[in-house]
Amino acid sequence: MRVIFLDIDGVLVTRRPCVMEERLLQNLVRVVRETGAKIVLSSDWRRHPEARAEAQHTLNSLGLELIGCTPCKSPYLAQRPTEILEWKRDYMRNPGAEKWENWIAIDDRELLSEQNGRFLRGHFVQTHPLRGLTPEAADACIAILKQDSSKETAGATPGVPRSSSFEANVIVTRPATGGDEDQLALRTIPRVSGRNVPAASHISAAQAARAIRLHGTAPARAAGLGRPRGRSMGAVTTGRR
Question: Which Pfam families match (predicted)?
Answer without folding.
Answer: HAD_SAK_2
